[in-house]
Task: structure prediction
Amino acid sequence: MILDAMKEEIKGKGIKIVLTEGHDPRVLQAAVQLAKDNMVQPVLTGDASVITSLGKELGLDLSQLEIIDIGTYQELPNMIDQLVELRKGKTTREQATEMLKESSYFGTMLVKQGIADGLVGGATYSTADTVRPALQIVKTKPGAKLVSSCFIMFNDENKLVMGDCAINIDPSSEDLVEIARESAITARTFGIEPKVAFLSYSTKGSGAGESVDKVARAVKLMANENVDFAYDGEFQFDAAYDETVGKLKAPDSPVAGQANVFIFPNIDAGNIGYKIAQRLDHYNALGPILQGLNAPINDLSRGCSQEDVYELSIVTAAQSLHK
Result:
């Protein structure tokens, strides 16, 4: 449902998405399928001979793919100069040269230069290795102070957003406000009119503790943001999600019992929560989708499938149309 809408939006537009791990069979197979379906124009970075050899081994037609060999890239000296300028006083030319040997940095520079519209990486390296180049090169967008993440959770009946489940370990009240604001923007990008619930083990003061205070303060701070979407908290999940419980525990709330964007108090709750929904309630999980950056850059799990690479590339392309 949600993917079909995104496919219709991006198909045939020639949106270029960098896939930094063309040497990985999952990534290469997804790239071929993306090009065949006319979803995006994949740009693979790395060692062209390794990518080509793998393609032959897998029996793939790579003719529709753009493959950029980092070692022989003619514009590399200019890219090095630009990276040094971007990192003025922090990175020497020698350091920049070494950094750009890494596909994650090289691919991020292609996005920064406007050669590509977005990037998907992380099938073989950590989230930090995706986020670090993004922060150093693309940087956060105006008004954003941190990078956060969310998952789009969907099944045949519902579409939900859950954040932050992958990046910020113990966000402050101020951080929760920013995560909520960015998650609402992401929700709208994917056709969800946001009703944001700040989650806790307490509903409207039913419990006490540092974590409850942090979430309650975030709700108060949200009033200073002049946002154009409904929000409320603090809520236990049942009060936020279930209409009957919501009316019982928070009868005057504009969000209780009808929330579709859930902001978790920390990464423990977020990561556990989305995986419970995925495994026990049979929701599909799209993400993590990174938020707060100047360009769409997204991170794969190292346990990802070919389908995950395909779907996150579609999400990234859709984001590029709404930045």
In short: The first strand starts at residue 16 and ends at 19. The chain has two domains: 2-139+293-320, 148-284.
